[in-house]
Amino acid sequence: DGVVESLTAQRDAASASLAQTTASLDAAEASLTALTAERDAARAERDTALAAAAAATQAANEAAAQARPRRTVFGGCPSGAGGTSLAAAASVVSKYGSGSCVRQFFGGWQPPNFPAGAALVHASYAKSSIDIRSILDGSQDAAITAWAAGIVPPPGVTCVVEWMHEGDKKVSDGYCSLGDAVAAKRRFYDVVKAANPALLVANTLTGWIFDTRSSAHVTLSEWGRCRADVLGADFDGIRPTVLPYPNFSPAQVAKVQEVVAAAGYRHWAVPEFGAPRISGDDGTVRAQWMLDTGTRFAAADALYVAMYEYDSTPGYKLTAPLEVSAIRALAV
To answer: What's the longest Cα–Cα distance across the chain?
Structure first.
């Protein structure tokens, strides 16, 4: 009996010790759980504070950027045949001065030219060499990716790229449907930005579509579905034979800005601007018209304005000293 009592006592003591140890472990686990919760709460508070600080910094930077006056970049495209070379691009900077913009047209996926002194380059690629079907079916994706990834502008130079400018004209000419044009533009943007996010992608339309008298005016919201950074408006399609020169109205510019806001684009620009010199004008009237209209574009915060000077009939090229001086004055 004494042995049984002794073993029972040892068992009870062991059970008590186990219970005490279990209680201690439970207390420790509860304490650890509380500490973990405190740590997680502290981390969440820290992350929230960091996110708030980052958002505040971004907002401050954006506000500062908006407060800074941004100079509209003026320039043009090379005149003469075969204006796709670096020398042709350099001729634009030579004509309008350092800090000007250069607009060039290309066939295949040729790298843009970056002449010394250019502040912005807009490289436009023609649908005649790169058919819309090859964009839509993805067969151009690899070529676009390699081309876009290889574009490295000099420091401080903005590069704008575009496939198939004036899409509304291509639709009205019967080249493609509006739906296919929008789909192809969206795919081009997605592939370019995946390969090189620093590039700006343009979606350029004719200036006429922004006029309420245009039958295509009602399609502007659909064109706004094209993904892009820059909405281009080509104000060069009117060729009067008698004075005055075209009045690209404030209402048209306001409509451009309205589409920019609705589509979430970052900028608007005038990749093609001008009108042929009217007979009897020695350049004086056209120079003043360009100066006045260019000033309005700049006041409306256009990112850039490029004179259209490719060879054509009638000719758009600026040859009178007063005309060139007007654009150089805007480019300062």
So the answer is: 136
